[in-house]
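Thread: "does anyone have the structure for this chain?"

Original post by V.I.:
We have the sequence but no experimental structure in hand. Need at least a predicted one for the grant figures.
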Amino acid sequence: MEKYITLITNTITPLRKSPQRLNLRPTSQEDREAIARLLFSAYDESTFPTQENAQHYVETILNGTHGEFYPEASPILIDDNGRAVAVLLSLKNRLDHNGPENTPTLLELITTPSRRREGIAEELITYALDVMHTQHHGAASTHISETNAAALALYLTLGWQRWTPQDDTFLPA
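Reply from O.Q.:
Generated one for you, tokens below.
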């Protein structure tokens, strides 16, 4: 069974290197199919064997199966051809994890393989944290597979910290 690491951060984003350069917008229900196509293209067959599997997973997120979907803090980047390039799907409260109570969760961060390493993921995270901060959430969490070195490096570079249940009273200042 795959193991996950829980990371937390405060929602103040002092590490922003430059102004937002991408035309991001909140995810809407109309983005379901575009997100499913992106998800299917970004993962290997063991995660989503078919487009329908990816579509079902997206439906569970947007319909609140994992917790209340947080569309304002779920930015999406659509290219000039109307295709989803990247998306970050957030929840106001995640129902199926052991993270900090009442803390929004960055659930899925997906960038199309051909557009990775362009700083898009960092902008999506910063956008989501800015929204959360504006809406009076002091902290956010995410869960990263122990084997996903690239994602772990990204979050740690952005100042996220490892969290365990023993740290329950600690959230970054």
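V.I.: this helps a lot. Residues 120-134 form the longest helix (15 residues).
O.Q.: and The CA atoms of residues 34 and 81 lie 12 Å apart.
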